[in-house]
Each structure stands twice: as structure tokens, then as C-alpha cells.
Amino acid sequence: MTSQPRTSRVVQLLAVPDGLPRPEHYRVVRTLLPQSVEGEMLVRNRHFLVFPGLRTVVGGGLEGVPFPGAQPGDPLCGTAVAEVVAAASGAEGPRVGEPVSHRLGRREYAVVPVGACTPLGDTLPDPVAPRTRPTL
Length: 136
Fold this sequence. Notes:
The chain is mainly beta. The protein has a single domain (7-119), classed as Alpha-Beta Complex (Quinone Oxidoreductase, Chain A, domain 1). The chain has one helix at residues 54-58, and strands at 7-13, 26-32, 40-48, 80-87, 99-102, 109-113, 118-119. The strands form 2 sheets. The protein has a 5-stranded antiparallel sheet with strand order 6-3-4-5-7, with no helix packed on it. A two-stranded antiparallel sheet has the order 1-2. The longest helix is centred in the middle third of the chain and has 5 residues, at 54-58.
């Protein structure tokens, strides 16, 4: 088994924007990754959902929305599509290499409880895979 990364790049909110968010409202930082324990897995994020509600989140949030409001220093939350890199022994769920989605947001790697992931199976094609044309 290859060694697991010890750190992950994470997109954090640097300042709450007054108006539309701009690049200066965010920063990318390197943080330590916690070691996964039984019932958790390490995933590497590949794609992130850009959703209109993110503006509400970085503006402090609203009561009743599924994501908490972000404060300066918080990582950006949101749905990510990831590949399972490692699963702790005894964990049931997706295996290494399988795609999953989760809501831990914009970070390179995440340690996620198995129950907080949705296996994607083959519902999403690999966007960089070679495409073949159907035979007519």
C-alpha cells in the first residue's frame, strides 16, 4: 500500500465579501490530515459543485439551509466528487478507486465517515476518458 498524504490543500474563506466574492476573499492553505479510523475513509477530491447557495454560505448563512455559514478561516463547504484512496480496516462501503460524493467541500483530500459518502458507481463517466464512437 502506498503511503497516505499527511497534508491537504484546503480553500478557506479569508474575509466575508461585501458584494460578489472575489479571489482576494479566499486563500489556499496546507493543513494536517487526521488519520482515518474504523468507519472512515480517505478520499481525494476530483470535482466540486459550484452552487448559487455558496454566496449565502460565505455571507454568513441563513437559518434552515443545509450548510452552515462560513466565517473567516473556515474551509469552504459543498459537494465534492472524490475517489477513495484508502479505507480503514473493518470499514464497509466503497473500495479503493471507487467514486463517491460527500459534503466536506473544497479540499484536496478529506477523511470522511463512510456513512457521509454516497457511492456513485458508474453514474458519472470519467470526463477525461477516451470516447469511442458507436458503430453504425
